[in-house]
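Lab notebook, bench 4. Still working through the backlog of constructs that have no structural model yet. Next entry is a single chain of 731 residues. Request: give me the structure tokens for it.
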Amino acid sequence: MNIDKIKKMGEYFMAGHIACESPEAIIKYAWGIREFFCNCDLLIDRSYNFAPKDSFRKDMCYIPHFNGMIIFAEWQFRKYKENDKEKCEIINQLQEYWKDYEVQRAVLESISDEERKLNTINHGQGFFTDWQGHATIDFPHLVEVGFVDYKKRVLEKKSRLSSSDTKTQLFCEALLIVLEGIEELIKRNIAECNKLLSSSHGDDLFRMQRLEETFQQMLLGPPRNFFESLQFTHFFNAIDGFDDIGRLDQYLWPFYKADKEKNIISASEAELLFTELFTIFGRNTHWQVVIGGLTSDGKDASNELTMIIMNARHHINFPNPNLSLRVSEKTPDKFLLKACELLGDGVAHPALYNEEKYTSGLEDIGIPHNDACEFTLGGCTETHIAGKGAIRDAITNGLTAIEMALYNGHLKDGTAFGRKTGDPSKFKTFEAFLEAYKCQMEYIIDTCVLYRNKTQEKTASLQPALIRSLFIEDCIDKGLSHSEGGAMYNYGMIDIYGVPNIINSLFAIKTLVFDQQLISMQDLIAALHVNFQGYENIRSLCLEQHKYGNDYDDVDIMAKEISAHTFGYLQQHKLWNGGIYYGFCATAPGAHMYLGESTGATPDGRLAGTPLGNSMGAVQGTDTHGPLSMFNSVTKIDLSTIIGTPVVNVSFSKKMFDLENRARMCALIRTYFKRGGLQLQLSVVDKDTLYEAMEYPEKHKDIFVRVSGFCARFIDLEHKFQKEIISRTIH
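Model written out:
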């Protein structure tokens, strides 16, 4: 293949990977990253304080996600097919070359034909995904000691190795190659700043001088002031792919405090800098910024930057970055009131997290207190330890377990999928059906973990996350990549969808088939099989039953048992490289929609193809007794077993967050957390406004809503998503 032509197309990673003469996948991967950083666009703009002003990843077919994944962009390939036959042919050649490094292909080739069938079952189980998960690099250490410390650590590690330890030698060599690429990228930025300086004046000249000095400092040591600490953070966040930035108000606070005492910066100037930074983040789908909480010795960690960051986020007209406020009993009211102000103004941020419960829940799974206090959120809302953690998250459709229990280990279409648990029409008691359901849920979890582990083990050998291996604690010391288990804390996470539907479905079966014997199991199955057509009376009975989310003890007892079984069973499983799996619920973008599309009718009265529950709260539109009743239902569950984050979506009308009601809303939030609630995602919007936005989108460009575990601009959502959001109860 012609490497020069590949470079001219902007496929720098592939050019480096192919040109590398080493047969070792980790070295080839490192050269791909190095080549990318040596050639990617610099994206410095005189009108910006920060660089890059955008993502390094532009129009490519093979896009490096620096958590280790290489994503093939079909849309770019289609463009080549339509407009450029020569480029199309080159991409065809690259596709053939890359087959040896495709994780899913490697996994599917290593298993039996019977096992391969699992990959085609259209229930969104995600058994074979090569997604490596979200993480937060060690920004506190980075701004404390600087970039240069990492090369020193790798060289020291390499110097201590025996000549026979070839695997770790290769790992260190790969990290040094990546470091060379980052160093070259920094030098290229210095040169570009110098070039722009010659034609800059006024504020532009100041910005370019300051940027050049900051890039120079990256090659010398740690940041020396607040601006440099922000630019260091931004630059290495961009290198990590705009994923998660951790507790921004904590590790930047010493720099801000020192500069403010010297009258170098004011609160308003800092707010402007954060506003620009968050605008860049918003354009590039940066995921999480976390603020607030406690220090490890139990003191309130909120500070002036906490408020400045909330003010800055208020100005951003993008769904991202997600802003998450850790709320403790010691969090001053002014911060929670500010959060309610943002929410009331339709920002849909921040999401709220129960500080004490997260910390204690993480301690329960073995994380020491000082590190548990450093929990942060990744992606939509996945819990991990900042700078020290790796999470391998995946999605599964838990509601499939109901279907398999009803069809004796088969799906409705006859596909054999689960375990043989018997003909449900012959069960004499609800307990027998419940055991069949639990057996099928355990099968889903067992299978998901088994193939997730197979996929991740293969991923570690073919696509190691080398950026994170540099900047996440213990990888260098262990001599293991972030993908192999090099981080201090390695966990698996399974995002289990449909739990509220499962609760309501099991309760309906218990009540209608066994307790009251109003319908037979055969008739229920027949009704579900035809999506209730001709069985409208049975659907009416299913819909009339008590629903989780209304403080009914009878159905909430079911919720407690089902959640304890599902998430407790999951925690008994381990990653291939150590660490347990733990659960979270309803975080992935739009998963409740596409999983629902491939799921048949269910005993809660839900029709085939319609959305699953969008959180661990009530199923959409079924919480009819007010928000406090819904919170009471949720907190009857031991949510600490879902420490990955049990998303709870709640919608409120605008009047509930107006100035005179904000104190009441703060009290409601604190009550929920005091009773054991872990997380809240709030949308504040009126239903009439949503209907109007569907009809006149140009008038409502500033409406943001929580979808599942993430936020979106309402008018940008597909029509089916808009309908689902409108179906929710607005309190």
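Notes after review: The chain is about 50% helix and 10% strand. The chain has three domains: 3-120, 139-353+364-369, 390-646. Flag for follow-up if needed.
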